[in-house]
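Q: What structure does this chain adopt?
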Amino acid sequence: MNVTIVDYNSGNISSVINSFKEVANDKVSIEVTSDLNKIKSSDKVVLPGQGSFKSCVDALNKINGLRDTLNEFITELILPEL
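A:
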């Protein structure tokens, strides 16, 4: 299983990576990226938060196409987002 942790220059990525490594015990492939094609081809997507929703949305909007890709992942591909 491929799990992509979205790197949008916000959120607590290191905690999310460490948590997955601890729980997954090398049973899943974890990649941290903002590459839209890699996000689309992932089995699951993790969008780390940081407590301030506005700053997360602002950061998402700074990466061209990321918000649309995440919406497509959830609504059209119907794949789980964490």
